[in-house]
Amino acid sequence: MLREIANDPNEFLAQHGGGSLDFTEEKDLQKLQKLYDSLQMRILATLEALAQLRTTSNYELYQLSCMNADFLDEIAAQQIEDIQQEIAILEFEAQQLAEEIEGLQGSPVAF
Q: Coiled coil: which residue ranges (predicted)?
């Protein structure tokens, strides 16, 4: 945005409803004040959004992955291993329940 202002201040003002600059009239000083105030608000909003972004877990993951290029792969591999272990435990429990049901019913349970 600052480049846009520096390259063509009159165009920037026109895009934001400010007209053009002449500096010989009080109106132009008021336009500059209005532009300044508008820029200040946009800068503050951007800084607040950036601060909020930095509090998210996604930003934390980004930071960690910047420090260690293999970080996300390592986390994914660990999660895959954890899920596979959980699947094995659940399959074992399901088999035990099937055997218990079979014992109660006296007939095999399809599993």
A: 80-107
